[in-house]
Specification:
It is a single chain. The protein contains 16 helices and 14 strands. It is an alpha/beta fold. The strands form 3 sheets. Strands 1, 2, 3, 4, 7, 8, 9, 10, 13 and 14 form a 10-stranded mixed beta sheet that branches. Strands 5-6 form a two-stranded antiparallel ribbon. α4 crosses α5. It starts with a helix and ends with a helix.
Length: 505
C-alpha cells in the first residue's frame, strides 16, 4: 500500500507538473502574442526608410570683422501619439555656439503657410548664412550659393529652425486621413510643435536657457499660442516672442463679412506705403497721417456708404490719391480698392504685376490682356528654386545628413489640406493670456510697410486694443519692404537692432 501510494503520488505530482508546464507555456504564448500585438500597434502605418542619424559639423563665419565659430546640427525628433506610437518625425536645423554660459538664450523659429518650411527665416533672415531672395530682380536661376549673413542673430542667441510635418524633410508616418487629423489642423499643430520645443530642450540640456519663440506669417499665428501652451501645459516659460509679418487675427483680415470696415482699413495704409515708396516719399511721419485718416474719416465714409453720396465721392478721391490708382477704377469700386485690383493696376503701365508680399516687387504679367490675373506671385515663384537648392545642398553635402525624399520648402498640398477650423482670434487671446501670465515676457511684432498678405495695420489696431496695463511689453516695428522685409539690408539691420533690445532685457 505504501509503495502504491508513493507511486500514485508521483503520478499525481507528475501530472500537476505537466499541467503547470502547460499552463506556463500557454501564459508565455499569450504574453508573446500580446507583445507582438503591442509592437504591431506601435508600428508606424508607413514603412519608410529610417532617417539619418543626427549630424553636427563645426562652421565659422565672419561677423563684424571677427570669426564666429558654431556647431550646425541637422537632426530629428519623433512625434508620438497618446499611446506612445511614433506617428511623425520632425527635422530641425540648429546653430549653437559651443562653450557658452548656461544662460545663453535659445530661439525657436517657425515659418508659416501653413505648409512652409523654416528655410526662409533660416537662410533669408537670421541664420548664420543666407541666400538672397525676396527683392526685385530675383529669378529662379539665381545662384543658390550661401554667403555669411551680416545680420545673423547667432551672436546673441542660439537658433533652432523647426520644419513642421509635411515641410522640409519632416514627415508623417500615418496614412493620409490620419495625417490630416493629427497634423494638418490648427489645434494639433500647436500641441505637437510645443512638444517638439520641449523635447529639444530636454534632449540638449537647455532647460535653464532663456527661451524665445519666433514665427513668421502663419508662424506668427503659432508663436503666441505655443508660448501659452508651453507656459500652462508643459511647464516652460518663454522670455520673449518675436512675430514677423504675423497672421494674428484671421477674423479681421478675412472678408467673411460684408459689413466690417476692418479689411479695407487694414489694407489701405500698406497700399499707400507702396505708392509713397515709388515716389521716394515713404517716411514714418507720412504714414502717421495716413493711419490717422484711416482710423477716422476713411472708416466713417466707408460706413456711410450709398446713403451719403458726398461720403462716397470723398472716399474715391482720397483713396485714388493715396494709392496712385486711376480715380475711374477706384470710382467703379466706390472707393473700396481690393488687393488684387491694386496689384494689377499699380504697375499696369509697365505691363507688370506686383507681389502680394511686397507690392513693389514685380514680374512681367504673362497675360496682360486678361481681365483677371492668371500668373503666380512674383516673390514666391522666384524664391522657391534658390532657397530649396541652398538648403538641400547645405543639409546633404555640408552637414552630411542624408535623405532620399524630396525637400519641400513650400507645400501647396499641406496648405490645401489644412483644417483651419472656425475663424477666430485665438492667437490674440493666447497672446493676452501669455502676457498676463508673465509680465516679464517681451513681445516684438515686426512688419514691412508694403505687405498686403499680412498688413502691418492689423497688428497696430490689435495692440491698441490691448488692456493698458499689459501693453507695455509689446512693441510694433515697421520697416521698408514687405512680408520678407529682412531681404532688404537696411531693414534687416534695423530688425536686429530692435531684437537686441528684447534679448538684453
Amino acid at each position: 500500500m505504501t509503495t502504491m501510494f508513493k507511486f500514485a503520488r508521483v503520478l499525481a505530482v507528475a501530472g500537476l507538473l505537466a499541467g503547470g508546464a502547460s499552463f506556463a507555456h500557454a501564459a508565455d504564448t499569450a504574453a508573446a502574442a500580446a507583445d507582438v500585438k503591442a509592437k504591431s500597434d506601435n508600428k508606424p502605418d508607413l514603412d519608410l526608410p529610417p532617417m539619418s542619424e543626427d549630424k553636427t559639423v563645426r562652421q565659422t563665419i565672419q561677423l563684424n570683422g571677427k570669426p564666429l565659430h558654431y556647431d550646425a546640427t541637422v537632426g530629428s525628433i519623433k512625434v508620438r501619439d497618446a499611446k506612445g506610437k511614433v506617428i511623425g518625425e520632425v527635422v530641425y536645423t540648429a546653430y549653437v555656439v559651443p562653450g557658452s554660459a548656461p544662460n545663453r538664450p535659445v530661439t525657436f523659429a517657425f515659418n508659416g503657410g501653413p505648409g512652409a518650411s523654416s528655410v526662409y527665416l533660416n537662410m533669408g533672415a537670421i541664420g548664420p548664412r543666407r541666400v538672397q531672395f525676396g527683392a526685385a530682380g530675383d529669378a529662379p536661376s539665381d545662384s543658390s550659393e550661401l554667403k555669411d549673413n551680416p545680420h545673423t542673430w547667432l551672436d546673441m542667441t542660439d537658433l533652432v529652425f523647426i520644419d513642421p510635418i509635411g515641410t522640409g524633410f519632416s514627415r508623417s508616418l500615418e496614412e493620409p486621413a490620419k495625417t490630416k487629423t493629427d497634423f494638418y489642423a490648427t489645434e494639433p499643430d500647436i500641441k505637437y510643435l510645443s512638444r517638439i520645443v520641449y523635447d529639444w530642450l530636454v534632449k540638449n540640456g537647455r532647460l535653464r536657457s532663456p527661451k524665445f519663440l519666433m514665427g513668421e506669417s502663419y508662424g506668427g499665428y503659432r508663436a503666441p499660442r505655443i508660448a501659452y501652451e508651453l507656459q500652462t501645459q508643459l511647464g516652460i516659460g518663454v522670455k520673449g516672442l518675436i512675430m514677423v509679418s504675423p497672421y494674428l487675427d484671421p477674423a479681421a483680415i478675412g472678408d467673411d463679412t460684408a459689413l466690417s470696415p476692418l479689411p479695407w482699413m487694414i489694407n489701405l495704409p500698406s497700399m499707400a506705403a507702396s505708392h509713397l515708396e515709388t515716389q521716394q516719399q515713404l517716411t514714418p511721419a507720412a504714414m502717421r497721417g495716413i493711419e490717422a485718416y484711416t482710423r477716422s474719416q476713411f472708416a466713417t465714409d466707408l460706413l456711410a456708404g450709398r446713403s451719403d453720396p458726398a461720403a462716397v465721392a470723398r472716399l474715391v478721391d482720397k483713396v485714388a490719391g493715396l494709392t496712385g490708382i486711376d480715380p475711374t477704377v477706384v470710382g467703379r469700386l466706390d472707393g473700396r480698392l481690393d488687393i488684387n485690383t491694386f496689384l494689377r493696376e499699380l504697375h499696369r503701365a509697365d505691363k507688370k504685376i506686383g507681389s502680394v508680399y511686397d507690392s513693389n516687387v514685380t514680374a512681367y504679367d504673362p497675360f496682360p490682356a486678361s481681365a483677371e490675373r492668371k500668373s503666380g506671385d512674383p516673390i514666391l515663384n522666384a524664391l522657391i528654386a534658390p532657397s530649396t537648392s541652398a538648403m538641400v545642398d547645405f543639409v546633404t553635402r555640408e552637414v552630411g545628413w542624408k535623405s532620399d525624399t524630396q525637400y519641400k520648402a513650400l507645400s501647396y498640398e499641406v496648405n490645401s489640406l489644412w483644417d483651419r477650423g472656425v475663424t477666430q482670434d485665438k492667437p490674440v487671446g493666447d497672446l493676452r493670456q501669455a502676457m498676463a501670465n508673465d509680465p516679464k515676457m517681451g513681445v516684438l511684432i515686426a512688419h514691412g510697410y508694403n505687405d498686403l498678405s499680412c498688413p502691418y495695420f492689423a497688428s497696430a489696431l490689435i495692440l491698441d486694443q490691448m488692456p493698458a496695463a499689459m501693453a507695455a511689453p509689446a512693441r510694433l516695428a515697421v520697416y521698408p519692404g514687405g512680408h520678407m522685409f529682412y531681404s532688404r539690408d537696411g531693414s534687416a539691420q534695423s530688425f536686429k537692432r530692435d531684437a537686441q533690445a528684447l534679448f538684453s532685457k
